[in-house]
Design a protein that fits this description.
By secondary structure, the chain is an alpha+beta fold. Helices cover about 30% and strands about 20% of the residues. It contains 5 helices and 4 strands. It has helices spanning about 5-15, 70, 85-90, 105-110, 125-140; strands at about 25-35, 45-55, 55-65, 115-120. Strand 2 and strand 3 (about 55-65) form a beta hairpin. The chain starts with a helix and ends in a 16-residue tail after the last helix. Mean pLDDT is about 90; it is low at about 150-155.
């Protein structure tokens, strides 16, 4: 489903169509696999994170160069931010049969989703980060983007 080299080539071609100058080494895509271990943003980089469950994208988001916590850990803790993957899973009836709880959702995400991270040189600027995130949203239509169920945990 996800061919990283093909995706990288498409993204670089698309951004160049805007007149933006980007070198091939300014976009790196890392497949962390499943289970996965999250990692932080390298110095001088911005990032896009993706979570894939059974070949469907659940979440695609971005983090600027000063947002390491967003990139590294907030999506594994339902209390870690206003909107995150953990909250969305806890609110999704599809996952009710798996008996996932506030205490176990982070480990469930690490064990059951594939994570693919994109690293973009921060020198390219926020518009490039926004463009790449929107490109991936349009291409993969992630399940949890912009919905109210990201905002609260059912029962709270």
């Amino acid at each position: 489903m996800l061919n990283i080299q093909e995706l990288r080539a498409k993204m670089i071609e698309a951004i160049r169509l805007t007149g933006t100058v980007i070198e091939n080494d300014q976009l790196e895509i890392v497949d962390r696999g499943m289970p996965h271990k999250p990692s932080g943003l390298p110095a001088g980089k911005m990032g896009i994170y993706t979570f894939i469950y059974q070949d469907h994208f659940l979440k695609i988001g971005k983090a600027g160069p000063n947002s390491d916590a967003r990139f590294r850990s907030q999506h594994y803790n339902p209390l870690g931010s206003q909107s995150n993957l953990a909250k969305s899973i806890l609110n999704d009836i599809e996952f009710a049969s798996q008996h996932i709880s506030i205490e176990t959702v982070g480990e469930w995400i690490r064990q059951n989703t594939k994570r693919v991270d994109l690293f973009i040189n921060a020198s390219l600027g926020i518009f490039v980060l926004n463009y790449f995130e929107a490109f991936l949203h349009l291409m993969y239509q992630p399940k949890y983007e912009g919905f109210d169920n990201q905002r609260k945990i059912i029962g709270n």
